[in-house]
Design a protein that fits this description.
alpha+beta, 6-stranded antiparallel β-sheet, Thiol Ester Dehydrase, Chain A
């Protein structure tokens, strides 16, 4: 069925369906939450083999999908830094190493309120897994 949108963008209903699907995913419980900078936090998560996002992605080499990592960023930014504005885009996104079951991962979130962006990084002592910048829509005055 051809899209009525010439640019191929999703409708608000389609976007809500994607959001609902992501919310159904279990998120790891954050532990070791440490404030950093003025508007930042580091938290540690354990990637357990029972996370639903690992099922079928991939059978013999399970990894946390990139879209799930972005969901975790948005979730913890909202929960811990109280950032609830709509996302405009994700910039500087790099996935450098797969996150697998039984990994312990630190997520660093640093929010720049003046520029309305959130820098994030997933890492451990000897490896960077991913990083990027979430740019938010400015809140209404």
């Amino acid at each position: 069925m051809p899209s009525s949108n010439p640019r191929g963008e999703r409708s608000a209903t389609q976007n809500q369906g994607v959001v609902s699907s992501l919310q159904a995913l279990n998120r790891p419980v954050a532990r070791g939450i440490t404030p950093i900078a003025t508007d930042g936090v580091e938290l540690t998560i354990d990637v357990t083999p029972s996370l639903p996002c690992l099922e079928g992605h991939f059978e013999h080499f399970p990894v946390v999908p990139g879209v799930v990592q972005l969901d975790w960023v948005a979730h913890y930014a909202s929960l811990l830094l109280h950032i609830d504005w709509p996302v405009l885009r994700v910039d500087r996104l790099k996935f450098t190493s797969p996150i697998q079951p039984n990994n312990t991962v630190v997520i660093r979130l640093i929010f720049n309120r003046d520029k309305q962006w959130l820098d994030f990084q997933f890492f451990c002592a000897d490896r960077s897994y991913s990083k990027g910048r979430v740019v938010y829509e400015s809140p209404s005055d």
